[in-house]
Structure formats: C-alpha cells, structure tokens
Write a structure and sequence with these properties.
The chain is α+β, with helices and mostly antiparallel strands. Helices cover 42% and strands 22% of the residues. It has a domain at 132-311: Up-down Bundle (Glutathione S-transferase Yfyf (Class Pi), Chain A, domain 2). It is globular.
C-alpha cells in the first residue's frame, strides 16, 4: 500500500502543500512544532476520516481559514476529506465534513478500505500503564480496519449510549421515566454485544502475531510464555450466556445505580485490555524496556494482521518514536520498515535514525515559514 500524492489546503500548519511520494521509507524531519506530526495526522485523516490527536475537526482547520481540504492518491483511488469550520459561510452551504472516494460521496469507512495505516506515536508508549481508553482506542482502530462492519456497529453503539445517558440524567431529574429507556436499550444491546464479540475475535486473531513479534524482539523471554493482550469486560458471560445476554443481565443489575449516577455504568465503553506475560499484568511489574518491547510487538503484530486481510501491507506511520527505543529495538523496526512498500518516519534530526534506514529513505525537510505563515515541505534538491 503506497500513498503516491498528498495535497493539503488550510490544514494545521499547511496553507498549501502538494507532495508526491515514491516507494520505501519517507523521512520527514525538522524542528519541533514545525508541522511533522501534522503531516502524519493528515494521512491518518485520509485513512480514517478523523484525527488521532483531537476529536474536534475544527481544530484541524488552519487559523483564519473556513475550509481544510485533504486529498490523496492510493493506486487507482482518489481520496478526499473536506472539513468546514462551524458557523462559517462555507458551513451553511454543505455541512461540516465531506468525504469522497473517486469523486463519490462516501462514509469514513470507505477511506479505510483504500488506505490502511498503522500509527506508532509517542503517546503509544503509555499503552501498557496508561488509561483503558488508550487501549480501547488502539483495539477499535485495528478492528475498524480488519473487521467488516465494525466501524458501523461502534458508531451505532456510541449514538445509543449518548441517548441512553441523556435519558438517565433526565430520569434522575424526574423529567423522564424508565420506560423510555427500553427504546434505546435495544440498539445499545445489539451493537454493544457485537462490539464485544468483534473485539474478542480480533484479539484471538492477534494472539499469534503478537507472541511471535515479542519473541522476535525479546528472545530471552521465551521461558515466560507468549505475550498476550487479554480482554477484560465488565459484563463477562456466565456459562451458556451470549455476550448480549451477559450485557442485558449487567444492565439489570446496575439499573438503580445508573439512575443515581445519571450515566451508563456497563458496556464496551468501559471495558479494558491488559498486556500479560507469564500470567501477570505487565503494568504491575514491567520495566520501561519491557513496556517498550510489548508496545513495539503490538505494532508489528498490527502490521502482520492487516497485511493478512488482503495481502496488502498497511502504511506504517512512525511519529518521532526512534528516540524512545534502544538500538536493538530500532534495528527490529528498521528491518520491518525495509520490507514494506512505503513508510513515513518523522524525527527532529536524522542523526537519531539507524544508518541503514537513512540509506534507504527519501528525505523531506519541514521548514517553518517566516512570520508564522505556515510550513513547507522540501525534498533534497528542491521544494515538493
């Protein structure tokens, strides 16, 4: 999978950008806050329809602009995402976000069918010990790319959860009745159980590549058994129960407390996943080196799993993570990068990177323009 062209207008630090990329590693370097991460973020938006850094599309639009336009070419496919600032004249003409694939209006899921990405960012270094939301987000992004229909089920669940929480607050304030919950309980249970089942199936598929990647990076841990990412649901199924029946039972058990709190207390939005080695949660005992090994193993496993979907390796995006890895782990990552059709790597200085990667990479420099006028991207020998 290869991104051949990227065109930006009014996106983050980029007033205008028109870049054409070739095969192999693409090295994006420049000072902090110049626009390196924004470039990778633009690729993520083209793949997912939304940013991994913010939930507000308006934050992606360059200051002073009404519209941000992102366009990319992946093989025979032309991808486009247009973001419109709320309240602007442009918003009155056509909504806040428009997604097109080959000129036809589509949903965000259609982008991921053409451009799949695996992102490795500095915040991922908290995956082992950070909040459950970080791990849920990684699982959901992977499931959206690997499991047909998952993104739609997750979206349906989110809408049902939002409506349900609004009703629970109204019931607590005695402006609604519990009978009104039944309407939203149906889609909540249907989509919620589908999300749980898909997550469990995905982690089952991920088990072998994750264990293999961990042994590749840390062969000394062979006696500890396989590294696992184990799902922890707040609605575990009893013997003979389906995921839907277990969730329905837990809703009934927490009904009184839900009304008291004015929010839904069970469901996949509160589930977690833990990295486990030798039967123990890595968060309880792992050194920083072990944590980094587990996280790198997960990213390599994601690459393998997504490549197995249709034989097309995904686009790997590495946002300034080499400085977090020791030479041995960098070497494993470089070997994987070299085997991919294309990858994007950001760094503040090429000196941080493995010499083998530097020799194979096409170098691009992000250059801040004077007076806060945005950023430009320059290839060796000229401007992209």
């Amino acid at each position: 999978m290869r991104l051949e062209a990227l065109d930006l207008v009014g996106f983050r630090a980029y007033d205008e950008l028109a870049a054409r990329f070739g095969d192999g590693p693409q090295l994006i370097w420049g000072p902090n806050a110049a626009g390196k991460t924004s470039l990778l973020e633009a690729i993520v938006v083209l793949a997912r329809g939304s940013s991994h850094r913010t939930g507000g599309d308006a934050e992606l639009i360059r200051w002073g602009a009404e519209v941000a336009r992102l366009a990319g070419s992946v093989g025979d496919n032309a991808l486009e995402v247009v973001l419109v600032r709320p309240g602007s004249p442009a918003a009155a003409q056509g909504g806040r976000k428009r997604i097109r694939v080959n000129g036809v209006a589509r949903r965000a899921a259609a982008l991921g069918e053409r451009l799949r990405v695996v992102l490795f960012a500095p915040e991922d270094m908290l995956l082992v010990v950070g909040s459950p939301g970080l791990r849920r987000s990684v699982i959901d992004q992977l499931a959206a790319a690997a499991v047909p229909g998952y993104a739609a089920e997750l979206s349906t669940y989110g809408r049902a959860l939002q409506q349900r929480n609004g009703l629970l607050r109204a019931i607590r304030e005695e402006t609604a009745t519990r009978d009104e919950l039944r309407y939203w309980d149906r889609p909540f249970l249907a989509a919620g159980s589908a999300v749980v089942e898909a997550r469990l199936a995905l982690l089952g598929r991920l088990a072998e590549p994750l264990a293999a990647a961990n042994l590749e990076i840390a062969p000394e841990e062979v006696d500890a058994g396989p590294l696992r990412l184990e799902y922890a649901t707040n609605a575990p199924a009893a013997a003979g129960e389906s995921a839907r029946e277990a969730l329905a039972r837990r809703l009934a058990e927490t009904a009184e407390k839900e009304v008291w709190n004015g929010t839904t207390l069970v469901g996949p939005h509160r589930d977690d996943a833990t990295f486990r080695l030798a039967g123990r949660d890595l968060a309880d005992f792992a050194s920083r080196g072990q944590q980094r090994t587990a996280i790198l193993a997960l990213k390599l496993a994601e690459l393998d799993l997504l490549a197995s979907v249709d034989g097309r390796p995904p686009l790997l995006l590495l946002d300034d993570v080499f400085s977090e890895l020791d030479p041995a782990r960098r070497g494993h990552l470089v070997r994987r990068i070299a085997a991919l059709p294309q990858a994007f790597v950001t760094t503040t200085t090429p000196d941080d990177l493995d010499p083998a990667l530097l020799r194979a990479a096409t170098a691009w420099q992000v250059v801040p323009r004077e007076g806060g006028a945005g950023a430009s991207l320059r290839a060796a020998g000229g401007r992209a």
